[in-house]
Amino acid sequence: MTTYYDIPADMLIPALAEKLSEMKDISQPDWSNFVKTGADRERPPTQSNWWSIRAASVLRKVAKQGPVGVTSLAQDYGKSVNNGASPNTPGVASRHIVRTVLQQLESAGLVELVATKEIESADGKQQLYSGRRITSTGQKLLDEAAHSCRDMANDMYPGLAKY
Fold first, then answer.
1. Alpha-carbon span 20 to 102, nearest angstrom
2. pLDDT of residue 163
3. pLDDT digits 0-9 by tens, 24-63
4. Are 116 and 98 in contact (CB under 8 A)?
5. pLDDT under 70 in the chain at which residues?
6. 0.85 cut: is pTM over it?
7. What pairing do the DSSP bridges indicate for beta strands 89-90 and 111-121?
8. In the prediction, which pLDDT does 122 show?
9. Do 59 and 19 touch, CB atoms closer than 8 A?
10. In the chain, where are the structural domains located?
């Protein structure tokens, strides 16, 4: 069986984005037409389906990295910030976009929160989470998208056939 580890990301993400765009829980918010994807960017994205592409990429990263949080994903999507004469520093992408995509993936049942422990506070008991991980439904969707790309991947990269 073909898994998402077998297919390169540049082939898997567009195929997964098509599958996610068909789901009713994954939809582009109205405000997303006017926002930049990070502080280091100059303009909003120009692609019409950039939201579903970002959702597919986030789903793949959650599957590969295990329990992962919003800050870690925002750092993955950030670029370096030009500080003029000073050395460049790492930039961070928009956490609001990453958080909204994760919430949509969670409402679709593709990712879930991972609870670590329960603590006692003045407000009562609170649950701490270590991030989000992929569910079996999300794993199945990723593997289906990978399997649909298998022939194209074998044509472009003949060495993949032995896997």
1. 13
2. 65
3. 999 999 998 888 888 778 888 888 899 999 999 999 999 9
4. no
5. 163
6. yes
7. unpaired
8. 82
9. no
10. 9-162
- Whether domain 9-162 has CATH 3.40.50.300: no
In order, the DSSP letters of the chain are: ---TTTS-HHHHHHHHHHHHHTSSS----GGGGS--SBTT-SS----TTHHHHHHHHHHHHHHHHSSB-HHHHHHHH--EEP-TTSPPEE--B-HHHHHHHHHHHHHTTSEEEEEEEEEEETTEEEEEEEEEEE-HHHHHHHHHHHHHTHHHHHHH-GGGGG-
| CB-based contact 67:130 (threshold 8 Å) | yes
Radius of gyration of the chain (CA): 18
Burial of 24 (0-12, 13-18, 19+ CB in 10 A): exposed
